[in-house]
């Protein structure tokens, strides 16, 4: 980029009809570059000039309004009526006292609402979305609000798109635009310019803020941010549904209504008998008001809100960000946790541990950028190793940076491990990538379990492919033995599968690598007739601290089930190491064994409900397993990270997304986000959920029993000793002093230590 000083000044923004621009036109008009993007200084200037990428969200209620709203309640109206009656009967002291009480009551409500609001605001701040942007040729992850006009963003499956953008590159990119256009199928994207009158749903060269990438990847130039986006024009979608009533709110409202009806009934009887008996009007009115005040559980809604909001803040501090208030309740009653493996049960610190070639197997480690062969040096497989390293480098979307910045590694941990392997030799990964420029990509998906890339090479074109051994081996025709290539025969296939099984039994995550060279290949269909070069066993150590959490869940009557896309033996090995199943357990159900949901027999259902490890499952099967557990009467909490997990996260009673490695789509679909991705945090969150629920139960029982006894006392005294009945003011004082504060103490208590020792 040159002459960037005044660039922002010359840009016409907002841009209408970016879809009509050719790629070159959009680059020129936004003064950006399809490879380098803009630079950091320029982005800051544009942020200043065009604003940050944030919605002018609906204004929060002002402090004054919150205060004034405390007076908007039937009980306050009643009290004011009581004060007026007192004034009418010239009881000035009583009138003044009532007004003071109204004020104090409002101040307490006001203070509590501020507490709840600051808890909610603190929670919101934790839920920041990041985007991948290319600035000055380098890929960075930045908060989406800092995305600027003209920024070049990299989009891949699972990303929520941060702004409207004109695509400059698309590798089988497909976006879910249902929130914008109503189209339920993913829309395939390309980079061709379109006529002006193209409908929104047909603007295939554009991506839109708030929609998400379902498949493939691509790059787009940001043409609209914040309100100047298609989503920004649809106000209803902008505000999130944070303020919808929770089941708890609804139950509390229903309870309050019942209490009011009881009082009205009592008041009516009391008034009628009073009139018949010829009691004084002032006495009848005062006692009626006293009854109403007695029945109204003033503290209930506000204490409930404070208890939930405070509980959520505590949970957030313990790494579980709760997005929906109601999930706290559900979480406490969870009876089954369906969890994935990588990162949740393992550390997600993946590194290359075993190299397996047709003629030898080697244990390796990387120490300070040097590849160390642990037991024997490589002999017969040098060429296989070079090919494997080349494929691992090229068939790779991760980035490693050498600067001292905080985030040095961006991308899939497996691919990061492959780049580290590549960097142990010369030329390093970056130089290799430059040598073999990429022409096309068939992205990885959990369904195909394979990723492939097509590159220019000195002898024509090169295909690099990696994926699960079972799936990739089916795409191979040849096998490399040192410098010679032979046809892959069934015996060799079997031997490879057997070897991968052995590695999986050691708990390794195994990937196979293959390639082919030729003059030219179709850009969307090159994953066939490949040449197999070898496998890598990646070590991803189990999180051993999980053992205690698993025991604690078991004691709490919660069943834990692992559902993974990985190899059954890898899954079983990890399950044993963390104590999910015992040492002799062999039962694993794989995706291939699992019958379709509509042909499921009772025996299969029983088997599924009794199994603790599911492997090689597809995202669809994950959803089905959740469904089976739910239909058997369980409250199901489910973890997920990928774009394909989103439906299951929505379907589960509590969807838990991974904060570190989870895609934004998964985070949006989930009701809880785990900041550290760890299973231990799930177990802690369940315990917290139970405590909060217990607290709520305690204070509801406390407040309602207080109200009922007050109704009883006022009614009995009203009939038997009208002169000595409690006055509205006294009741209100009782409610405030003896009710709200103790209830609050019950509501935010730490709970007892035995919450996780009972069944949900
Ligand atoms: P987990 O439960 O362990 O998180 P998952 O359900 O997310 O696993 P996937 O990530 O879909 O599983 O991986 C399934 C299989 O696909 C892996 O076992 C591996 O063989 C293969 N695989 C994973 N990542 C890649 C990748 N980046 N490129 C190619 N193949 C991959």
TrEMBL record:
PROSITE patterns: ATPASE_E1_E2 (PS00154). It is a multi-pass membrane protein. SMART domains: Cation_ATPase_N (SM00831). The keyword Cytoplasm does not apply. GO terms for biological process: proton transmembrane transport. SUPFAM superfamilies: Calcium ATPase, transduction domain A, Calcium ATPase, transmembrane domain M, HAD-like, Metal cation-transporting ATPase, ATP-binding domain N. Keywords: ATP-binding, Cell membrane, Membrane, Nucleotide-binding, Translocase, Transmembrane, Transmembrane helix. It is found in: Cell membrane. Its main location: membrane. GO terms for molecular function: ATP binding; ATP hydrolysis activity; ATPase-coupled monoatomic cation transmembrane transporter activity. InterPro entries: ATPase_P-typ_cation-transptr_C (IPR006068), ATPase_P-typ_cation-transptr_N (IPR004014), ATPase_P-typ_cyto_dom_N (IPR023299), ATPase_P-typ_P_site (IPR018303), ATPase_P-typ_TM_dom_sf (IPR023298), ATPase_P-typ_transduc_dom_A_sf (IPR008250), ATPase_P-type_domA (IPR059000), Cation_transp_ATPase_P-type (IPR050510). GO terms for cellular component: plasma membrane. Residues 17-91 form the Cation-transporting P-type ATPase N-terminal domain. Coiled coil: none annotated. It comes from the Bacteria. The chain crosses the membrane at residues 63-89, 95-114, 259-277, 289-316, 699-721, 727-748. Belongs to the cation transport ATPase (P-type) (TC 3.A.3) family. Type IIA subfamily. This is Ca2+-transporting ATPase. The lineage of its organism: Bacteria, Pseudomonadati, Bacteroidota, Cytophagia, Cytophagales.
């Amino acid at each position: 980029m040159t002459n960037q000083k005044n660039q922002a000044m010359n840009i016409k923004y907002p841009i209408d009809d970016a879809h009509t621009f050719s790629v070159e036109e959009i680059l020129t008009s936004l003064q950006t570059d399809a490879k380098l993007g803009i630079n950091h200084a320029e982005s800051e200037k544009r942020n200043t000039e065009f604003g940050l990428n944030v919605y002018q969200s609906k204004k929060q209620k002002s402090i004054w309004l919150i205060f004034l709203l405390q007076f908007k309640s039937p009980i306050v109206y009643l009290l004011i009526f009581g004060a007026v009656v007192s004034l009418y009967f010239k009881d000035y002291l009583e009138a003044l006292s009532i007004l003071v009480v109204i004020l104090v009551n409002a101040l307490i409500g006001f203070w509590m609402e501020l507490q709840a609001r600051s808890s909610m605001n603190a929670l919101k701040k934790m839920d920041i979305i990041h985007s991948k942007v290319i600035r000055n040729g380098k890929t960075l992850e930045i908060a989406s609000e800092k995305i600027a006009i003209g920024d070049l963003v990299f989009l891949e499956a699972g990303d929520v798109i941060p702004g409207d953008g004109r695509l400059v590159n698309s590798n089988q990119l497909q976006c879910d635009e249902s929130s914008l256009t109503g189209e339920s199928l993913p829309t395939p994207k390309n980079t061709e310019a379109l006529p002006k009158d193209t409908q929104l749903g047909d603007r295939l060269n554009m991506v839109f803020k708030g929609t998400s990438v379902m498949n493939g990847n691509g790059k787009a130039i940001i043409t609209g941010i914040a309100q100047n986006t298609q989503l920004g024009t649809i106000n209803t979608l902008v505000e999130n549904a944070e303020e919808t009533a929770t089941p708890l709110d609804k139950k509390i409202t229903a309870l309050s209504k019942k209490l009011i009806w009881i009082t009205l009934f009592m008041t009516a009887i009391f008034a009628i008998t009073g009139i018949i008996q010829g009691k004084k009007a002032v006495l009848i009115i005062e006692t009626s008001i006293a009854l109403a005040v007695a029945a109204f559980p003033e503290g209930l809604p506000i204490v409930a809100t404070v208890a939930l909001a405070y509980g959520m803040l505590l949970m957030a501090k313990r790494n579980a960000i709760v997005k929906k208030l109601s999930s706290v309740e559900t979480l406490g009653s969870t009876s089954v946790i369906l969890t994935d493996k990588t990162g949740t049960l393992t550390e997600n610190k993946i590194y290359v541990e075993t190299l397996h070639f047709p003629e030898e197997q080697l244990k390796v480690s990387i120490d300070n950028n040097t590849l160390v062969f642990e037991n024997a040096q490589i002999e017969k497989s040098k060429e296989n190793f070079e090919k494997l390293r080349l494929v691992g480098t090229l068939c790779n979307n991760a980035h490693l940076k050498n600067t001292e910045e905080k985030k040095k590694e961006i991308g899939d941990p497996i691919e990061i491990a492959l780049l580290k392997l590549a960097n142990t030799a010369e030329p390093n990964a970056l130089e290799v990538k430059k040598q073999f420029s990429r022409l096309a990509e068939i992205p990885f998906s959990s369904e195909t379990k394979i990723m492939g890339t097509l590159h220019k090479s000195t002898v024509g074109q090169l295909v690099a492919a990696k994926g699960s051994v079972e799936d990739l081996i089916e795409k191979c025709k040849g096998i490399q033995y040192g410098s010679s290539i032979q046809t892959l025969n069934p015996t060799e296939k079997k031997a490879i599968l057997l070897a991968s099984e052995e590695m999986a039994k050691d708990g390794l995550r195994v990937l196979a690598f293959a390639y082919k060279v030729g003059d030219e290949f179709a850009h969307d269909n090159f994953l066939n007739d490949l040449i197999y070069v070898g496998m890598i066993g990646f070590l991803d150590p189990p999180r051993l601290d999980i053992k205690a959490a698993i025991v604690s869940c078991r004691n709490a009557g919660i069943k834990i089930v692992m559902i993974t896309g990985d190899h059954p033996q890898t899954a079983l090995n990890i399950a044993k190491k963390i104590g999910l199943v015992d040492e002799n357990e062999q039962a694993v159900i794989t995706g291939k064994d699992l019958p379709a949901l509509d042909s499921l027999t009772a025996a299969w259902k029983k088997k599924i409900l009794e199994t603790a490890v599911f492997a090689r499952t597809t995202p669809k099967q994950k959803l089905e397993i959740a469904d089976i557990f739910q239909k058997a009467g369980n409250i199901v909490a489910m973890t997920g990270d990928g774009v394909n997990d989103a439906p299951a996260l929505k379907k589960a009673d509590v969807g838990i997304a991974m904060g570190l490695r989870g895609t934004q789509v998964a985070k949006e679909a989930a009701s809880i986000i785990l900041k550290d991705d760890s299973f231990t945090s799930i177990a802690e969150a369940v315990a917290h959920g139970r405590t909060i629920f217990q607290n709520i139960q305690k204070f509801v029982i406390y407040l309602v029993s207080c109200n009922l006894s007050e109704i009883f006392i006022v009614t009995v005294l009203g009939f038997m000793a009208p002169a000595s009945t409690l006055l509205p003011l006294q009741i209100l004082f009782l409610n405030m002093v003896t009710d709200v504060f103790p209830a609050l103490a019950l509501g935010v208590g730490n709970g007892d230590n035995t919450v996780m020792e009972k069944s949900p």
